[in-house]
UniProtKB/TrEMBL annotation:
Gene Ontology MF terms in the entry: 5-amino-6-(5-phosphoribosylamino)uracil reductase activity
PANTHER family: 2,5-DIAMINO-6-RIBOSYLAMINO-4(3H)-PYRIMIDINONE 5'-PHOSPHATE REDUCTASE, DIHYDROFOLATE REDUCTASE FAMILY PROTEIN (AFU_ORTHOLOGUE AFUA_8G06820)
Source domain of life: Bacteria
Lineage of origin: Bacteria, Bacillati, Actinomycetota, Actinomycetes, Mycobacteriales
Stored InterPro entries: DHFR-like_dom_sf, RibDG_C, Riboflavin_Biosynth_HTPR
GO biological process terms held by the UniProt record: riboflavin biosynthetic process
Keywords associated with the record: NADP, Oxidoreductase
Name of the protein in question: Pyrimidine reductase family protein
Keyword Oxidoreductase: yes
Pathway this chain belongs to: Cofactor biosynthesis; riboflavin biosynthesis
Annotated Bacterial bifunctional deaminase-reductase C-terminal domain residues: 37-251
One Pfam family linked to the record: RibD_C
Amino acid sequence: MQRVPDAIQFTALTTDGAGEITDLVQLYTYPAALTAPWIRVNFIASLDGAVTVDDRSGALGRPADATVFAILRDLADVVVVGAGTARTENYGGARTDSRRRMRLHHHGLGGARDGAPPPIAVVTASAALDPASRLFTDTQRPPLILTTAAADPDRKRLLAETGAEVIEAGQSTVTAADIRRVLGERGLVRVLCEGGPSLFGELIAANAVDELCLTLSPLLVGGTAGRIAVSPNALPTPMSLRHALLDDDGTVLTRWERGRTQS
């Protein structure tokens, strides 16, 4: 029988201090000495399972979730997102705490030597992205575009002209194995995937999800919003709870790992 950790009161943790490696940061560090990409997925959902309100996830957010969201980006080598989510959420470049990223790098916990933010890596088989969007114009680091040999060459050329690194990761599709290979070749092993549901579903189907950070927002939403993961076929994947944090407003922040059990 798996031992379930007691919930930790969010306000009891050290969460502030610009540039510091706080108690909360320590709870989310990646495994040490990674030699291949570790794919962490981060999502928020309402109590009734809605992943969005009016097609946007931001309305579900609460202060504790925003704090953890920032920490996850500070720790990551790369932020992976599907093209649909990048368009819907109007993605720009990652904004991170440069001092914290330098300190994390110094301690071998991620971050970056110069404090630079992680690049955004967009998965798009068709390369159907607007080169004038914030993804390309509002960023400190050019994005990585993981696309295919079959994608329109003019689209790929226009994206490359923005300074983005356009990578033909597959022939006609970009699989989970392609994503892992491309990121691993670039030494980007601390992977943070921010969705969307289709990409998450593809990663589940490929047994490629190492970790899920799931926030439960204290809201009932109703409506027609979808789930955090969708795919043609089900693949039940056992996960072990690593921790659960409870904030005063009812927000619950959980961290789950695949194929591990509590000691």
